Amino acid sequence: MTKVVKREDVYDKFCDGQIIMIGGFLAVGTPEVLVDIMVEKQIKDLTVITNDTGFVGKGTGKLVVNKQLKKAIVSHIGTNQETGKQMNAGELEVELVPQGTLAERIRCAGAGLGGVLTPTGVGTIVEEGKEKFTYDGKTFLLEKPLFADIALIKAAKADTGGNLVYRYSARNFNPLIAMAAKLVIVEAEEIVEEGSLDPDEIITPGIFVNMIIKG
Amino acid sequence: MTKVVKREDVYDKFCDGQIIMIGGFLAVGTPEVLVDIMVEKQIKDLTVITNDTGFVGKGTGKLVVNKQLKKAIVSHIGTNQETGKQMNAGELEVELVPQGTLAERIRCAGAGLGGVLTPTGVGTIVEEGKEKFTYDGKTFLLEKPLFADIALIKAAKADTGGNLVYRYSARNFNPLIAMAAKLVIVEAEEIVEEGSLDPDEIITPGIFVNMIIKG
Amino acid sequence: MVSPKEIIGKRIAKLFKDGDLVNLGIGMPTAVANYLPNDVKITLQSENGFVGLGPTPLEGQEDKDVVNAGGQPVTILPGGACFDSAMSFAIIRGGHLAATVLGALQVDEQGNLANWMIPGKMVPGMGGAMDLVAGARKVIIAMEHAAKDGSPKILKQCTLPLTASREVDFIVTELGFMEVTTEGIVLKELAPGVTAEDIQAKTEAKLIIPQTIAVMG
Amino acid sequence: MVSPKEIIGKRIAKLFKDGDLVNLGIGMPTAVANYLPNDVKITLQSENGFVGLGPTPLEGQEDKDVVNAGGQPVTILPGGACFDSAMSFAIIRGGHLAATVLGALQVDEQGNLANWMIPGKMVPGMGGAMDLVAGARKVIIAMEHAAKDGSPKILKQCTLPLTASREVDFIVTELGFMEVTTEGIVLKELAPGVTAEDIQAKTEAKLIIPQTIAVMG
User: Fold this and answer.
1) Residues 6+ positions from C142 with CB-CB distance below 8 Å
2) Which tens digits make up the pLDDT trace of C35-84?
C-alpha cells in the first residue's frame, strides 16, 4: 500500500475557504509544486498558517499575489511587499504571531494540548485578548492551538509509507504541521521504498502522512 | 575542546538533596554507569524524576533499594516492589504523573514554557490541586514545568562536542531531560569526533550537554 | 475449547479497519494482534517510543534497545519509526490513534474506567494509561467479564480511582460485546451459548438489551 | 576611519565567553562574529533551525537548504545540528542562549525594546524577535546611537509597540557602552574622543554617569 498519488488526486482535495498550513521559512522548505497546484486551481478565501508569506514569486507569496488568501497567520511578512499592501487595503487579514509561539500553537494542535503558557509577548500588543498567568514571579500568556484542514509538507525524502526526512534548515515548521492537520500532503524530492529508512533517522513518522507526490 | 571527562569528574558533581532526572523506560535507555556512581557515592535525600523506578537491581531501582531517594516523580512503580514498600512505610514520597504529562512537564522546563493544558487526568485524582480550564466544550488541567539540577542521559553515540543519537526505544525521555537540567551528563556507548555526525541525524544538539563518559 | 482470550481477541480485531494506528495494552489486549483478518493491516504503536511494533524476536535475536511498553523484547517492522516520549504521547493525546485496547479493574455505565490502582493494596501507577484513554479516538476494554472471585467489574459506578472519565466506547468480554452510549451500556452481541440473562447476572450495571442480539464470533 | 559597525562589533564580542551559544540578529548584529578574540569560540544559533552557523559559502557552493534567518546562504560548521522550529524556539525561550544581539528602533530606560513595527508605516512582523528577547539570558542591543534624522533612539519611554518589556541588558552604539539597570541606563564606557556630554546630548533618557568612565575599545 503506497501513499504516493498523482497530481490530480491532490488537486481534488483543495477547495475554497480551507485552512491550510504550509511548511517553509522564507520559502526554504516550502512545497512549491503543491503551492502551484493551489494557484492553478484558483481556490479562494483561504486561511494560511505558515511562518512567513515568502516572496512575491516564491513560496506562500504566490498565493498572496494571486489574491487567494482571506487570512494569514504568520510571524513575518516583511519580505513580500504585496502582503503589507493587501493588509493595509483591508483585503487580507494578517494575524502576526511570534515565531516560537506559532510553533507551539501548531504543536499543541498536533499533540492534543489545550494550550501553552509562554513568556513571549508579555507586555506587548501580542497579549491583547489573552489570559495572563503569574506565578513564582513570572508572567505568561495562554496561547491556544492552531488546527488546519490540510498541511503541505516539503520533505527531502519520503518512503512510500510516508516516513519523512528533511534537509538542514528546510525542516523548520514541516514536522510540526504534519501533526496538526486532518489531511497531510507531502512533496518529496526523492521517494524510496517503505522499509529503506532507518527507524532512528525518520523525523516525521508515516502515520501522519496521507498523500505523497514527487516534487 | 572535548566534553569527554573522567569518572571522578562526574563523581564530584553529585551531592545530597539534588533533583536528578534519569533517562530510560523500564531501564532501557537508563545510564547504568552514572546510576552506579550515585550508588557508590551514597548521596542521600534525592528527588528523582524519571519514567519509572526500574527493577530491584536495575536502573533507578538501585537508588531505591539503597534508600537514597526522598521523592520520586514517576509514572510507574509497579516493576519494583521496593518502591511501593518504602512508599507505604512513609519513607519515600511518590508523585505519580501520567506518562505523557511527565514528558510535557519536562519539556516545558527545557522550552521556557510556564505550563501546558492537557486533557489527561481530568475527572481523576490527578486533577487535585490543579487549575482547570474549559473552553469549546473541552476541559484541561494546567500542568507546570519540572526542572532538575542534573540530567543523566544514556546515548548510543556521542560526539566529543556532546551531539547525541539514540537507538530505538532507548531514546524515550533522554532528549527531553537533556533540555531541563542545569548540568547534563551523558553516558555514551560510543564516542566519536565532533563533526563526524550528520547534522540531520543528531537528536540532542551538543549545546545542551556538559559532560560525557564512556558507558 | 475456545479461550476467553481468543473470543475477545477475535471480536476486537473486527473493530479495526485497514491502516488503523492502534495501541494495545499489556496482557489480554496484546493478543488482539493474533486475530486480525488477512485483509486488515493495522500499525501498532508502542508508547515507549515507536510505531511499527512487530512480533517477539526469536531467542538469541533480542535487541536490548527494542522492547515494548511492558519491557519485553519485540521487533520493529520495516517502515517503523522511533521517537522520544513527548512525540509518543503527542501521537496518543493528539487523537492520532484510531483505538486503544486496555484491560480494566472496573468500568461503569457512564464510560468511566478504573484500571490503575487499588488504594492501600496495589499502586503501580498509571504509566501511559490515562493519556491513552483520554487521547485515543476509540477506547476498547478487553477483559474477563467478572473478577476472579466472581464479583462484577461492569458497575453502575466505579468505586476505584478513575483512569479517565466518560471515555470508554466498547467493552468486550468472553460473554459479549457491549457499546457504552449516553443512555447506558448496550448489549450488542452475545458469545455463543450465552443468554442475555446470563450476562446481566454477572453485571452490576443494568444492560440495555435490544430486541435482537447478534452472535459474537 | 573605524566604522560604527566595527566599534560596536568589537565591543560586543568582548561580552562573550568561550563556549557561549549566541543568536545574532540580521544586519549590524551579524557583524559581531567578525570581531571575536582568538581564544573565544562561540556557537551561533540560526532560529530557522540549526546551531553551528558558519560563514557565507563561496560562490557556487551554496546549498538551497542551508540559509540563515534572513534567508541568505550560509554554512553549517562541523559539529552543528539541525532541528525543527519548536526545538529552535525551545532553545531560545528555554534560556539556553547566553545572549541575543539585536538592532532597535527604540530602547528605553526601563529596558523596554521596540524593533518590530512602525504602525501605519512598516509592519514586517516580529518573526523570532519577541522570543529571542524574552528568552535569551542577556539581551544586547547593537545600533547606531541616533536615528538617521538625528532624533534619539534611547528614550525615557518607548513610543512604538514593544518587542518585550524590561528585557534589555546592554546597549552598544558607536558612541558608548551602556548597561540597563533597575536605576536606569548607566554609561559604562565611551568611544575614543566622545564625552559624556556628547552622548547625553544625543540621548533622551537621562544617563547615569559614574565618576570615572572607561574608554571603549
Assistant:
1) C8, C9, C12, C25, C28, C29, C32, C101, C102, C103, C172
2) 988 889 999 999 999 999 999 999 999 999 999 999 999 999 999 999 99
- Residue ranges and CATH numbers for the domains of chain D are 4-56+63-215 (3.40.1080.10)
Place of cell 516539503: A154
3-class secondary-structure state, position D150? coil
Per DSSP, C55 falls in state P
Residue C144 · residue C4 · CB < 8 Å: yes
Sequence-ordered list of residues with C-beta below 8 angstroms from that of A103, at least 6 positions apart, any chain: A173, A176, D84, D85, D86, D88, D89
Closest-CA distance, B107 to chain A, in angstroms, reads 11
Exposed / middle / buried, residue B7 (Cβ in 10 Å: 0-12, 13-18, 19+): middle
Distance between CA atoms of A75 and D59, rounded to whole angstroms? Answer: 30
Contact (CB<8Å) C135/A161: no
Residues in chain B: 215
Model confidence at B84: pLDDT above 90: yes
User: C28: pLDDT confidence band, cut at 50, 70 and 90?
Assistant: confident
Give the dihedral of Cα atoms A204, A207, A208, A211; nearest 10 deg: 100
Domains of chain B: 13-96+147-214 (3.40.1080.10)
Tell me the average pLDDT of chain B: 98
Grid coordinates in use for B209? 550537554
Q: Which chain B residue has its CA at the smallest distance from C88's CA?
A: B100
Q: Which residues contact D23 (CB under 8 A, 6 or more apart)?
A: D44, D45, D46, D47, D92, D97, D99, D100, D101, D132, D136
Q: CB within 8 A of C151, min separation 6: which ones?
A: none
Q: How far apart are CA A37 and CA A32, in angstroms?
A: 9
Whether residue D69 has pLDDT greater than 90: yes
- Give the three-class secondary structure for C143: coil
pLDDT tens-digit series, residues B35-75? 999 999 999 999 999 999 999 999 999 999 999 999 999 99
- The amino acid present at A54, given as its one-letter code, is G
Listed in order, strand segments (DSSP E) in A147-193 are 148-159, 164-165, 181-192
Of A97-101, B160-164, C119-123, the range with the lowest mean pLDDT is C119-123
Q: Mean pLDDT, to the nearest integer, of A105-119?
A: 98
Contact C200, C152 (CB under 8 A): no
Candidates A1, A202, A212, partner chain C, best to mutate (most C CBs within 10 A):
A202
Mark which residues 190-209 of B lie under 8 Å from C by CB. Answer: 203
Strand partners, B32: none
Q: Is the CB of residue A92 less than 8 Å from the CB of residue A70?
A: yes
Q: Which helix (H) or strand (E) holds C198?
A: helix C196-201
Residue whose grid cell is 504602525: D119
Of the candidates B200, B206, B208, the beta carbon closest to that of D82 is on B200
